[in-house]
Amino acid sequence: KGDLVPGTGADTFSRLAVGANDTVLTADSSTATGLKWAGVASGGMTLLASGTLSGTSVSLTSISQSYENLIIYLRDYRNSGGTNSTQFRLNGNTADANSLEQRIQTTTYQVQGTSNHTISQEVSNTDADAHAYIFIPDYTSSSAALVQSYAYNKYANTTNTLLFSTTSFPSVNTAITSVQINSPSTWGGGTYELWGQK
Known about the structure:
Layout: E1 7-9, E2 12-13, E3 24-27, E4 35-38, E5 45-52, E6 57-60, E7 69-80, E8 86-90, E9 97-103, E10 108-114, E11 117-120, E12 128-137, E13 147-154, E14 161-169, E15 179-182, E16 186-197
Antiparallel strand pairs: 1-2, 3-4, 5-16, 6-15, 7-12, 7-16, 8-11, 8-15, 9-10, 9-14, 12-13, 13-14
């Protein structure tokens, strides 16, 4: 079951037994058949956690250190009772860290110190289509310094959209093992996904 019969020369064939579960067929000129079964190459993504946004914050803790990068997706999220910034915090850090922010709708830029890095602003419970991601590269390094986030949302009462991007330099000098995602009031809905990327 699952065996292959690859050619090894002119009118010559050989049996290649099926590989282990979850391996893929790979070309390899050093083998007798020119083929082998191998593990999936790095670069894939693994879902580490997912759930519903509720309460005032969601904490993703005990994050596996087996990946190169972390990616967090927020889908169709709302803030119930508040329109201030939706933010995130790394390793529970409350020290100031510089964050370069850009609000596309008003085309304004600002650099500020903040203990919670901004994902988006003014996403009330009636606004629509709010989506965002947070990208944390090289998060297992003790000198991990760069965090990027990007958000998009549409106002319910207009056709305007707000695109909001940040590049943060957090005051975190250890590997990142937890991320807290904060609502300015309480979460009014939405889901999150935490992915590890090889």
